Amino acid sequence: MTPTLQYSTTPLPDFPLNLPPGSVSEHWTMPASHFKTFKEAVQASALMVSILFLIEVADLVLQHSRHTSLAGFGIVPRTVPGLVGIAFSPLLHASPGHLLANALPLFVLLILLFWDRHYYPIVTLASIWFFSGLGTWLIGRGSDGGRPVVHIGASSIIFGLVTYLIVAGCVMRSWRSAIVALFVLIGFGGIFYGVMPHAGPISWEGHLSGALAGVWAAKRNHE
Asked: Domain spanning 37-222 has what CATH number?
């Protein structure tokens, strides 16, 4: 059964963001990954997903103790303070349920990415992270009923990894990448409905931006 993936949009909390956007190098290199075994890939993936849970716990503590939220560090489309969300939005979630919906698929896809150094895992993940966030900042809904909206959640990364692994399997011309692509298509292909424009709290803009970032990364790495 295809897992349900969510990338939520939530109203921006009533506090200003004064963090300056970071700079991003225009020149990418292609280092080989250090993750060469399945065990190491599982450990790397588990570490990254564990960080998401730690951040969610910290957010819940802030909500109960100080009545504030880390959600303000998400992407606020077409605003200068909202640029900081390109770095932080995949780490943040609207609720524990939102995080749980993303955790398992992200865990599986990261294992597949880190398991094969020919995917250039670090560069690929960084590319999907940045360009999915930038795309969301450019095309995302900026308001809901007159209220600013902030886009958060890791599903933009999930969509990017899905398209990357599928496209890479088509262009790398190896049996291993082709089998991975087929597995991902069968297991996660149903999520592509999420890139279609629709109303509601789900950020289809984040999904679409992530999917396009994954396609771009695959073609850039392997063509």
From this structure: 1.20.1540.10
Q: What is the share, in percent, of the chain residues with pLDDT greater than 70?
A: 84
Are the CB atoms for 214 and 222 separated by under 8 Å? Answer: no
Q: What average pLDDT does range 126-148 have in this prediction? A: 93
- For the chain, the domains span 37-222
- This prediction has a pTM of 0.83
Q: Read out DSSP for 113-166?
A: HHH-GGG-HHHHHHHHHHHHHHHHHHHS--EETTEEEEE--THHHHHHHHHHHH
Closest CA to 102 of 194, 11, 169: 194
Three-state SS at 98? helix
State whether residue 207 is helix, strand or coil. helix
Q: Per-residue pLDDT tens for 179-213? A: 999 999 999 998 888 899 888 889 999 999 999 99
Cα end-to-end distance, the chain, whole Å: 33
- Which of these, 198, 94, 83, 76, lies nearest to 147 by C-alpha position? 76
